[in-house]
Structures are given as C-alpha cells and as structure tokens.
Amino acid sequence: SQQGEEDPQALSIQEGENATMNCSYKTSINNLQWYRQNSGRGLVHLILIRSNEREKHSGRLRVTLDTSKKSSSLLITASRAADTASYFCATDRITGTASKLTFGTGTRLQVTL
Amino acid sequence: KAGVTQTPRYLIKTRGQQVTLSCSPISGHRSVSWYQQTPGQGLQFLFEYFSETQRNKGNFPGRFSGRQFSNSRSEMNVSTLELGDSALYLCASNDPPNTEAFFGQGTRLTVV
User: Fold this and answer.
1) For B34, which residue in chain A has the nearest alpha carbon?
2) Which residues of B touch A105 (CB under 8 A)?
3) HEC sequence for chain B
C-alpha cells in the first residue's frame, strides 16, 4: 500500500519558474528519498534526507523534512523543460536488518517553454 | 561504476505462462529489491534479497517469487501469469545499512 500522498498530483509551470511538490507519510521513518521518473522508465535517485535532518540541497533541488508533521517538500528552482517528469517520494523504516521503500503517489510535473 | 541493469526491457507473454526477469545490481551492493508499478496501484514493494536470503516480502501472491545468487544478481519469477500482472517491474540495489537505493530501467511486462 502507498505510504502517503503527494500533492499536487499534477503541476504545470513555465521554464524558469520554481516547482514545489509535497509529500506526506503515515509512519515513523528512517530516511526519505526523492526520485524522478521519465515516461514510465526507471527511477532516478535525486536526494536522500535523514530523519534527523531538516533541509538538504543538491544543485537546483532543495528538500525539507518535517517529521512532526510527517511531511516533506521538494523544490526545483529555475525549472527546465528537461525537468518534465513524475516525482516520487519514498520512505524507509529499518526493521531488524531489512529495509524496504514505500512510495507516494507521485507528482507529474510539466515544464513548458 | 555501472548502474543497475535489468533484462529484458520488454516482454509480451500469454496468460498462464511464466516469466523470469533478471537484475544485476551495482557492483558492491548486496541488497536487491523488486517493485511493481501499475497505473492503478502505483509503486509497490515485492521483496528484498540480501546475501541470497529473502529478508522482506510485500503483499503479493505466491506466484511471485525470487532468488539471489552469490554474486548478488537476482531473478524474479512470476508463474501462471494473469492480465493484471501487466506492469513495469523495477529492481533496486543498495548497500546496507545505507538505504539509498538505485533503480534499473525496468522490465515492461505485458500479459495478453
């Protein structure tokens, strides 16, 4: 089952604008990761944020994590047409020595010229 | 370093047949996980293998099985295929305890 929801489900912006996507989850987590997926292909790992971190940056990406609200956001600044894709958050809880990822429902981002 | 490799990329099978998908993890990664992606259910965890042992299993019927070899390569098998098994099957590898997971391009399975 899905860990939670992402919103918006779809987002359309113009090139150069910023895009913000939100992710909510239901249970305590160890880490939260964001992925990008182009047209039903594989998932590309974007960034991992640990439960004891509040903010992380990678290039044009900024991720925040609020464990009290069980939510995270992904900000893409100065978007480009190449950023057009679906974006997913994924959480993991380590139980014993095993771990698995539970994915959100995803946000479809369309960046137009 | 080469990424996660999945073969084949595309498959078309008939109901009732069985299928085997293959995944080669990133060199040095000892854990391999499998996920199913469908438009209706999204991305769902199938199972995880570590050191040739299944450590975690999702909520899928017994028709879905897998194994891992000593070189960490993994295979996933689906028997008695149903139309609903049509999906993108994704494999991910990571190096525990690091849970940063990297995915392959997936195998698109179509059951007709």
Assistant:
1) A100
2) 42
3) CCCCEEECCEEEECCCCCEEEEEECCCCCCEEEEEEEECCCEEEEEEEEECCEEEEECCCCCCEEEEECCCCCEEEEECCCCHHHCEEEEEEEECCCCCCCEECCCEEEEEC
**A70's torsion region: left (phi>0), alpha (psi -120 to 50) or beta?**
left
Residues A9-28 have a mean pLDDT of 95
Instruction: Quote the minimal CA–CA distance from B100 to chain A in Å.
Output: 7
The pLDDT tens digits for A32-62 are 999 999 987 899 999 999 999 999 999 999 9
Residue of A nearest to B37 (CA): A40
Flag if A105 and B42 touch (Cβ within 8 Å): yes
Phi then psi for residue A68, to 5 deg, are -70, -30
The answer to whether A106 contacts B42, with C-beta atoms less than 8 Å apart, is yes
Q: How far is B80 from chain A (nearest CA, A)?
A: 23
Q: Tell me which amino acid residue A18 is.
A: N
Q: Which residues pair with A75 in a beta bridge?
A: A20, A62
- Segment B99-112 mean pLDDT: 95
User: Which residues in chain A are contacts of B6 at CB distance < 8 A?
Assistant: 42
A85 forms beta bridges with A109
Does residue A97 have a pLDDT over 70?
no
